[in-house]
Amino acid sequence: MATTISSTSNTSGTLTANGVGSGLDISGLVSKLMAVENQKLTNLDNQKSAYQSKLSAYGQVKSALGTFQAALASLKNPSSLSALGAASTDYTAVIPNAGAGAVEGTYSVQVTQLAKAVKLASAGYAATSDTVGTGTLTFDFGTYAGGAFTSNGNGVKTVTIGADQQSLTGVRDAVNAANIGVTATIVNDGSTNGNRLVFTSNATGAANSMKVTVADADGGNTDAAGLSALAFDPAAAAGSGKNLEQKVAAQDAKLTVDGIAISKTTNVVSDAIQGVTLTLTKETTGDGAKVPVSSDTSAPTKAVNDFVTAYNTLLGTLKGLTKYDATANKASVLTGDSLVRSIQSRVSGILGNAVSGLATDGTSTVTLRQAGISLKADGSLSVDAAKLAAVAKSADGIGRLFGSIAKATDSAVSAAVSGTATTTGSYALNVSQLATRGTLAGSGAATLDIVAGTNDTLDVTVDGITATITLAAKTYASADALATEVQSKINGATAIANGGSQVKVANSGGVLTLTSTRYGSASKVALAGNGASAIVGGSPLATLGLDVAGTINGVAGMGSGQVLKAATGSAGEGLALTVSGGSTGDRGTVAFSRGYASLLDSVLTDFLDSDGAVATRTNGINKSITDLGKQRTAMEVRLAKVQATYQAQFNALDTALGKMQVTSSYLTQQLAAVKANSG
Questions:
Q1: What pLDDT score was predicted for residue 21?
Q2: Are strands 511-519 and 437-441 parallel, antiparallel or unpaired?
Q3: Phi and psi, residue 175, nearest 5°
Q4: Separation between Cα atoms, residue 500 and residue 523, nearest integer Å
Q5: Shared-domain flag, residues 505 and 464
Q6: Residues 520 and 628 placed together within one structural domain of the fold
């Protein structure tokens, strides 16, 4: 029997397949496999989220620590906690402010005259653009009495007026730009030629009357034409060097305190009443103003309450970030964190102990509890207002309890402290050498005849700063007058003034001695130039200044000028003692104590510094987050390759299964055909 093979789908007698492929859900299979693989990314993301939560928590810790440290600022500085306040029965005339050293009492203040600054006004100009002139304006300050002007020796100031500055506006701007202690303004009085240039001294007081000398480009230095219209010599005749009009005369403030007459150059008087600054605003009437100085606990009380509030806020922040919820069996982001435990331990350790080095004679406190501050069972602080108010009456008590205080037994020694290295205790001071100033003593009487181009130029060096000055050429009435001119010109030299140096020029029997106002080995004075021998003779004696020298607690200190600093590495490191006078030898002791605010500030600085514990921890977390980002990027690349591999493998499997299905179908058809033919 013959067998015929055929296909139901193809009448030509040729076998065909209806498509290759098994029908596998490749996308679904790959997706499920990749979901497992992607769990690794999820784990990285969870780690990153945990790190970010910690980073945010440390940010809260840092902020709370910073707020707490800021609350310590005023407590660290005892001088800001004055326990006395001052009032006035006439605030429109006398405004008092009590500071360190104020003494309780009621003071009577009468103001009969306010200090004023001199004002000089020019003649009128039609427009602010009108030309005044070119040349130089030289300003000097001093007193005017008995028809004569006497310089105060603080230096003359010169302003050059160029061609582009010769208008009224230009002169004003040039003077103001020179920053010489004179303010120039233009005032219009409403008349046809109403624009008037006004010079006002920035300093009040009779010793700050003004003289304006002009070197006019037109050659007439005292007439009223050109720049010389701005000349003002109070001793000259009007129109011949006295060309400005004095609108306000310089004058001192005059007042009486408890019947004692006082004269001051300014309206801010800081040394009439001990520890009290008086600001005078107008003349008083009748019996004047009463200024009571009495206890004022507001400043120390507020500072302490701010300290307690900031600490409790810090404590609440730390507790909130570390608490464990036993009910939900859930930890907080910083539960068990070692950094937080360290902060809590170090801060509470300071607050829970008495500070050392404080006097215990009843005038100073040694524990927080004695100031009315209690540490409660939950670790927070509370304030007993009555106790605090009692302690706050003593600025020294609050100051010593919280701040760093260094106090010398010698009144000519003042002490300061910098840094945190100084150890609490008492330090003996021995001075082997007092600081001195550099001098240049003349070898003979000074020449009073100063001739231009012959002996009027000095090359001056003060404390290493050099300048060239020109003395006014004339015959001086006395060596005192010449000394005033030399001192004024040297101190007025821009380079020397900008360098912070000055000299005092003294006359003794016609011999001049120049002394730097600076102390120490950098202090020196030298003269050269054609006028040097006229001022100090041919063989002047130059003496360099000396730095203070001595020991602090037996260890040699480092002297600079009048300041003796404790040696680095010694127990007193950070102490700086200013020895302003006295003698050599033993100079008593310096007591140093470090209070709560000072101790806490040091601890907080350790945590908050750029290289401190908080920064180290956050920098580490940021690095971990960066590393996780790199791991994630690398893993994403690897997973993309894994997915591509899965896709290729399943596609191949699908193709193979498809072919097998075609073969199976073919064989089924053939077998069916064989069976049919055999029947």
A1: 64
A2: antiparallel
A3: -65, -45
A4: 12
A5: yes
A6: no
